[in-house]
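target protein:
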Amino acid sequence: MNEPAKPPLSSDARARMEALNTQAKHLSIWLRTQANAPAQRPWFHDNGLTEAGHLAEGRVAAGQMKAVPHLWKWAEISPYLDEIARIAVESDTPPIEFADRQQFLLTNPGLGGRLQTTASIRCAVSIYNAGDVAPAHLHSPNASRTIMSQNGGYTTVEGERCVAARGDLILTPNGTWHDHGNDAKEPVIWIDTLDWPLMEFLDVIWLDEDMPGERGVGNGRAQKSTAPDGLSRALYGQGGLTPAFATRGRGFGQNVSPCFHYRGADTRTSLSALRGEAGDPHEGVALEFTNPVTGGAVFPTLTYGAQLIRAGEETAAKRETSSTVYVVMSGRGETEIAGKTYPWEENDIFVVPNFLWRRHVAKGPGDAVLYTMSDRPLLEKIGQYRAQGARGGKVVNLTA
């Protein structure tokens, strides 16, 4: 049976959302009310150790856009989450009914207002009020949730209910049925990361909301929980051990991780255990979230990581052809990108576009932990990944 059409957004709610968009324009965020197209990348000329190289000029550059470094300060952008949540509570037809999300997207200032953080990555910050549920759906882009609030609500993926906490990473690979919600008393916040711009450029974006089978009890929009809670941890939570009887994939996506839930507590424990190691001169103590079946990236297009920059540590300069989005999970410090310094603290988000020199410094009394989202796997698959470091005034290749 067809579900009834969603009611139109009330004129009052629409006006309030658009007013917020006007207010927030200078912060390079966009309160979700529609979608738009991806951006092209310009030709680029490399000048060795110079900060950012040179973009092409003249006819080649006409109409072209390139992502630029940017820092989103949590103190500046988070109040807009509260406003979105307030509109959702006060409106007769809350935004979650027409957009299925209460969120703002991070818009890179270099991409002309397009809903992209980099050429291939879309990021949004979402808030769910108590009792909110996004309807079950699946789509072609790969997606994830990086949990920012202490209580992270839940995401049910292919029947597995993943109850989240701060620092958790929850995957919703392409071809998996999933829904999100908050059954706690306080709002929950997370960062959504998707390879949407890439899929949009390839013209393979699609969405399905007609989930077969039985829906959740008491809420016709949520899928029924059919797997034990914590199944991902039970199957894949022991490093180096993969159950021989378990499926190599869940959903119908290809080459994606069957483990949906990576816990922040485990990540912090691993980083702590490795704190005394030398680490990488360019990355500090870095971990990568991996597909437990293949040992590779969790998605063919995106990889996720966590890195510990110890108190007072300064990493060596590095650049790579992939782009990286960073989330500050703890600590404070600064990152120099293309010769400009960006100071950051907890919950801030910043982006390092492709092939720009960058280095991190932990400035606080304690260690800093950064989470990363990068399109490196995509660049590797098409033979375009390259990383370089700066040592002794010279550029050295870090990859073959």
